[in-house]
Write a structure and sequence with these properties.
The chain is α/β, with parallel strands linked by helices and 313 residues long. The chain has 10 helices and 15 strands. The strands form 3 sheets. Strands 6-4-1-10-11-12-13-14-15 form a 9-stranded mixed beta sheet, sandwiched between helices. A 4-stranded mixed beta sheet has the order 3-2-8-9. Strand 8 and strand 9 form a beta hairpin. The longest helix has 16 residues. It is globular and about 60 Å long. 46% of the residues are buried.
């Protein structure tokens, strides 16, 4: 199927995104001189850009592509949390975020000098969510699952939102979830759920894959599928693209287009294509096309199908 046909099929499908939400920030400026304190540039700040990351970014990508998206996660009761929730609202996703009193919102700030990231500093709490906040999150997850989403996407950055209780609830209701997708730094704790789709970066499965290229991933096909218990596993390889492995289809290699890669859009494109009835090869090509598109070309996707179709897959 062509991209336009797939996009028409997935419009307004209900998708639930659950997991670690992050506030991503870029502090961009002009390097003016070298510091006397250390061999680093002194950067005069020109602009500050803040966007939702993690589960918030994935939810925004689904919404931009035309899905009806709900996001469940947690923030702290700080300024960064308020900013992150405003980014969720601005994206158009339905907000069921929990505000954890006394918790610091996970924030990743990058210093950019003349277009080059020269430093990143992270702040925020990543301990397991506890107390009333954990109970409220489980309640909102249960309510969201009761609305019968067509797909559930778990975003696990190891930042404390998705504990054992969340996995237990999902396991108890697994038969009611038509399509379960996992996007995680550590995918193996999710294997008992038998995910339908799993997206992972190559460096996080280095213990299974002996190598750093697509051929090495393809050679580890059997081990990756068995150890993750997933029907489809997509392994992204930085600038090379991705290798998509399947229990019942040929291995698919996709090439990345030059330029920045939009990983949240890749996840959303892969999931939505499968919801629309795409083959593994069609879903892989759709995901790569979405990952290569500029954010402005994703919203609203229906009005820019021609732009996305022209984006190399």
């Amino acid at each position: 199927m062509k991209f336009a046909e797939l996009a028409a099929r997935w419009q307004d499908r209900p998708v639930l995104v659950v997991g670690d939400a992050v506030l991503d920030c870029w502090l961009s400026g002009t390097p003016t001189r070298m510091s006397r304190e250390a061999p680093v540039p002194v950067v005069t700040l020109d602009t500050t850009r803040e966007v939702g990351g993690g589960a918030a970014a994935i939810a925004a990508a689904f919404t931009a592509l035309g899905a009806r998206t709900t996001v469940v996660g947690a923030t702290g009761d700080d300024d960064a949390g308020a900013t992150l929730r405003s980014k969720v609202w601005d994206s158009g996703a339905a907000d069921r975020m929990v505000v954890a009193v006394g918790r610091r919102t996970l924030t990743k700030r990058r210093v950019v000098a003349a277009g080059q990231v020269v430093a990143r500093f992270d702040d925020g709490d990543t301990a397991p969510l506890g107390g009333a906040a954990a109970d409220t999150l489980l309640q909102r997850l249960a309510e969201s699952l009761a609305e019968a989403p067509a797909a559930v996407v778990m975003c696990d950055l190891g930042a404390g939102t998705l504990g054992r209780a969340v996995r237990s609830m999902l396991a108890a209701r697994r038969l009611d979830v038509p399509l379960l997708a996992i996007d995680a730094l550590d995918v193996f704790p999710w294997a008992h759920l038998g995910p339908d789709l799993l997206t992972v970066a190559l460096d996080t499965v280095s213990g299974v894959v002996e190598g750093t290229n697509g051929a090495a991933v393809a050679a580890a096909r059997g081990m990756l599928l068995r150890s993750t218990a997933a029907a489809v596993v997509s392994v992204t390889i930085d600038a090379e693209g991705a290798v998509v492995l399947s229990q019942d289809a040929d291995t698919v290699h996709t090439s990345a287009a030059p330029g920045p890669r939009n990983q949240p859009a890749y996840v959303a494109g892969l999931v939505l294509a499968k919801l629309a009835g795409a083959t593994v090869a069609e879903a892989a090509a759709t995901a790569q096309r979405c990952a290569a598109a500029r954010p402005s070309d994703l919203a609203p996707a229906v009005a820019k199908i021609g732009v996305l179709e022209a984006t190399p897959a």
